[in-house]
């Protein structure tokens, strides 16, 4: 019997390949939602008080599904820290080929301080990690690894400036270590709302500390 028209393709979920892709996308979206929720809850109540149920409720998933993705809260904490770190500053170097290296470096330094609500949340997570790293070897290794990544991020920006002739040749690792240390110190005081320091003063002090070494003006660049 002849059909009235051409046979239409079945829905995409009938195709095994499409089903696999859709499932992978749903899994990735669920993990993303859980990790975002974990970052918010840990920053709000602290790791010691967090319960898996709290994260599940905040993410809008079942506790069973949460445990499917993360076997325990230690694993969830580590993944949440890595997630938070990965979300920070991903767009800062979007126009690195068209703006001065000093602007890129200033953007990075700006994002290494608690300059907005999202970064203040990141800072609360960092502070939780510092406390755990004093007692837990896994947390200590994670903290050192994340600092290594920050060091590499800074070093790449500084070397780009040296290669472009914008920065003076210098000991890049030494400058990065100084910048990380200063950012941590000023960041803690900003998180404490210390009345003796504000964001502008912190950024200016961090920049002045390395401006002479880099051979650039000691005024924090417009970003």
Automatic annotation (TrEMBL):
Keyword Oxidoreductase: no
InterPro entries in the record: BetI_C (IPR039538), Homeodomain-like_sf (IPR009057), HTH-type_TetR-like_transc_reg (IPR050109), HTH_TetR (IPR001647), Tet_transcr_reg_TetR-rel_C_sf (IPR036271)
Region Disordered, residue ranges: 1-26
Keywords: DNA-binding, Repressor, Transcription, Transcription regulation
Pfam families for the chain: TetR_C_6 (PF13977), TetR_N (PF00440)
Signal peptide: none
HTH tetR-type domain span: 28-88
Residue range(s) of DNA binding per entry: 51-70
Domain of life: Bacteria
Protein name: TetR/AcrR family transcriptional regulator
Organism: Streptomyces sirii
Organism phylogeny: Bacteria, Bacillati, Actinomycetota, Actinomycetes, Kitasatosporales
């Amino acid at each position: 019997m002849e059909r009235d028209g051409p046979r239409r393709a079945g829905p995409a979920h009938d195709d095994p390949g499409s089903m696999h892709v859709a499932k992978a996308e749903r899994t990735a979206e669920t993990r993303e939602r859980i990790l975002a929720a974990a970052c918010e809850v840990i920053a709000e109540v602290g790791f010691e008080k967090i319960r898996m149920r709290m994260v599940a409720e905040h993410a809008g998933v079942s506790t069973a599904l949460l445990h499917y993705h993360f076997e325990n809260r230690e694993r969830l904490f580590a993944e949440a820290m890595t997630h938070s770190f990965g979300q920070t500053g991903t767009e800062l170097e979007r126009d690195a080929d068209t703006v001065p290296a000093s602007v890129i470096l200033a953007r990075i330094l700006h994002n290494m301080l608690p300059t907005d609500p999202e970064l203040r949340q990141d800072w609360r997570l960092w502070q939780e990690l510092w406390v755990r790293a004093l007692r837990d070897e896994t947390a200590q290794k994670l903290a050192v690894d994340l600092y290594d990544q920050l060091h590499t991020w800074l070093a790449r920006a500084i070397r780009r400036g040296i290669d472009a002739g914008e920065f003076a040749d210098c000991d890049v690792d030494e400058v990065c270590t100084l910048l990380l240390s200063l950012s941590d110190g000023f960041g803690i005081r900003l998180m404490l709302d210390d009345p003796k320091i504000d964001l502008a003063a912190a950024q200016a002090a961090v920049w002045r500390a390395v401006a002479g070494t880099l051979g650039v003006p000691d005024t924090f660049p417009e970003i």
